[in-house]
Amino acid sequence: MKLIVATILKQMQLAAVDRGEIRPVRYGITMAPPTDLKLKVLKPMEIAPLR
Fold first, then answer.
1. Residue 45: what are its φ and ψ, rounded to 5°?
2. How far apart are CA 14 and CA 28, in angstroms?
3. 8-33 pLDDT tens trace
4. To 10 degrees, what angle do helices 2-11 and 35-42 make?
C-alpha cells in the first residue's frame, strides 16, 4: 500500500504541491499524507481530471 501511495504521489507531484506542503504523519510504522491528500489518493478517479 505504501508503494502505491508513493507512486501516486510521485506521478501527481504537481497536484500534490498545488495543495501545499506535503507533511507525512507517522502512524506506527506507516507514513500517511495530509488528510485532504489522502482522500484524493483513495479516490484516484477524482485525481485524473485535475485542470
1. -65, -25
2. 28
3. 656 655 554 455 555 555 545 455 55
4. 100
- Count of other CB atoms within 10 angstroms of residue 25: 11
Residue reference for cell 488528510: 35
* Residue ranges in the chain assigned as alpha helix (H): 2-11, 13-18, 35-42, 44-47
Q: What pLDDT shows up at residue 47?
A: 53
Q: Which residue has the cell 506542503?
A: 21
Is pTM beyond 0.85 here?
no
Bridge partner residues of 26 (DSSP): 31
